[in-house]
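Handoff note, outgoing to incoming analyst
You'll be picking up this chain. Sequence as last confirmed:
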Amino acid sequence: MVVAVAVFSLLVGATSSIFLSSIKNQKQSLATQEILDQTSYLMEYMSRALRMAKKDMAGSCTGAAKLNYAFAGQCLKFLNYNGACQQFCLEGARLKDENGNYLTSANLQVANFAVMLSGASQPPADYLQPRVTISLNVAGQEQTSIKIQTTVSQRNLDIRK
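Most recent structure output, in case you need it:
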């Protein structure tokens, strides 16, 4: 009888351990899926806006005439396709747009928002097609994190005007 109770206890313990482990793995998978979904949407949204950007001929948005993009103080500024000033800024651990709307949920924390600009000036200062490289380090729940980077080239050709 003692042997039967011991075997039964081992089986129940092993089954419980496997069940708890699978629940933990499921939580980890859901957290990873959430961070991937949100960062994918965020990068697509920012990429689409940056791809359609216009050159700021007057310098009213970027701070200098004939610039395509400006990045200062954790804010990326540019003229969107409608000619309105648009920006993406890191405030605390969340990204926001020019209207104060958060682009990331409260469940995610942006640890790093890095932007590298190339070809942002008008020729003859440079003859490169404008492009922006965005790098994000994002941390989520359940100790999940992701590092993601994309480079976007402006759709409109950088020609002298």
